[in-house]
Structures are given as C-alpha cells and as structure tokens.
Amino acid sequence: MGKIYQSATSVSVLLPNEDRRAYTALGRLEQATAQLMAQYVELDVASGKHVSVGVLDSECLPKVAEYAYFFQQWLDSANLSTYWRRAWTFQEWIMAKEIDVLWERLDTTNQGPKTLPSIKTLILSGTGIIWHFNLLRQFEHYGENRGWHRILRRQVSDL
Question: Heterokaryon incompatibility domain: which residues (predicted)?
Fold first, then answer.
C-alpha cells in the first residue's frame, strides 16, 4: 500500500455522510488557513522583510487564533468521525503526497460532493506559517544579541 500512496500525485478521501461535522470543521480550517497565508504574503514575511512584533501581534495574532480555534474544532470532530478513527487513515495522510477531501453528502440537489483540494499541504503550510511568526516574535523580543541559532534551536526543541 505504501508504494501506491507514494506514487500517487494525490489521494482522494470520501468522507461518509455521518462525518459532516468533521468535513465542515475541515472546511473552516481551510478558510482560516487561506486567510493566514494571505496575511503572510501581504506582510512579505517570507522575503526576510523586517516586521515588528507590534505588527505581528495586531495583524497576525487574530488570524493565528482563528486558525488554532478551527484546528481544535477539527480535532474534536475528528475524534467522533468514522473516517478519522480508522486504523489506515494515518497511513493515508503520512504516505500520500497530497490529500483531497470530499464529503458524501446525501441531498437531493445532485450537486455531488464539494472537494477540499490539497488539504494536507494547506494544513502543513498554516502550521509552518504560525511557527515562522512565533520565531520572528521571539527573535525581535530577544534581539540579535541572543543569537539566531539559539532561538532556532529552542524553537525546534519545543516541537
């Protein structure tokens, strides 16, 4: 199975109808992550541009808090989910390069399931951005005299 997941460009997951809560929470997490990523791009943080702690706190902390809230909602709903309690779900998420999530909604509109595309990358990106924001906040708080490598080593050890 590992070779199948690793060779696939993307793995599609179809959540059963009873997993509506988990699917909805994942969709909200997708939206919160998109907003967080947009803020990251808008502030041009990735280029190394200096961004003050005040700006990070006022502009980014609300988005980080929203991401954390929806991530927790997703975790809570995943604990009750049919799909997330399966033994091989972990293998799917670890081995697959990318995951697209669909929900098998049973309705009469014949719209079919809505796809949450590239959700694995999106969640990992959101988590990485939060890590980077935290690193920048600590760097500015402690200043250059403490040394970048010490702060980085401390951040990595906290993982």
Answer: 1-92
Give the full edge-to-edge strand order of the sheet including 99-103: 11-15, 99-103, 115-116
pLDDT of residue 26: 93
| Alpha helix positions (H), the chain | 2-7, 20-43, 53-55, 61-78, 89-95, 119-142, 148-157
Among the listed residues 84, 36, 73, the one whose alpha carbon sits nearest the alpha carbon of residue 56:
36
In angstroms, what CA-CA distances link 127 with 2, 30, 34, 121?
Answer: 25, 12, 12, 10
Q: Tens digit of pLDDT for each residue in 70-96?
A: 999 999 999 999 898 888 888 888 888
Q: Where are the domains of the chain?
A: 2-157
pTM here? 0.77
**What does the alpha-carbon distance between residue 43 and residue 56 come to, in Å, rounded to a whole number?**
9
| Rounded-to-integer distance, Cα 44 and Cα 143, Å | 21
